[in-house]
């Protein structure tokens, strides 16, 4: 191979790694944002009538899938962990947690589960075990991450949750040692404790 061809190949490989940084880590970007719906199909669509100004808010130009289900429960469930603020001034809406009618400090190990996994309050106040980043933590289910409704004041003008979300407090992220730019969305596994 000529020197010119070698340089061309190196330039292309470099562009691929810059465009898809997970490839250079060897994980294919596996820890951030991949949908893991596991056969759960949308049950409908939500089309907001107006947009809101926050970064994660709904847009009137977009439609959002809604779900009555979550992926089937197994011994170890794949999920996307997202960050939630369960304080009274949190971004997830203005209402206290569904399970106990209380707000929770960001220092508490608490989570909200997507509608299907929340199972009509059946997981309320029960612990789940979350595994990620080579660590494990127990967290209490205190709320539903609503997969059916959203884009309104009650839901902080955010879209409905995806069907495979564990919405966790900052304390859960800290206990798993996930910090910096990795905080926001992270692929995890969880199980009933």
UniProtKB/TrEMBL annotation:
Q: Which InterPro entries match?
A: Kiwellin-like, RlpA-like_sf
**Signal peptide interval:** 1-26
Compartment(s) of residence: Secreted
Classification via Pfam families: KWL1
UniProt keywords (A-Z) are:
Secreted, Signal
**GO CC terms for this protein?**
extracellular region
Q: Which domain of life is it from?
A: Eukaryota
Family classification: Belongs to the kiwellin family.
Name of the protein described by the UniProt record: Uncharacterized protein
Instruction: Name the source organism.
Output: Oryza brachyantha
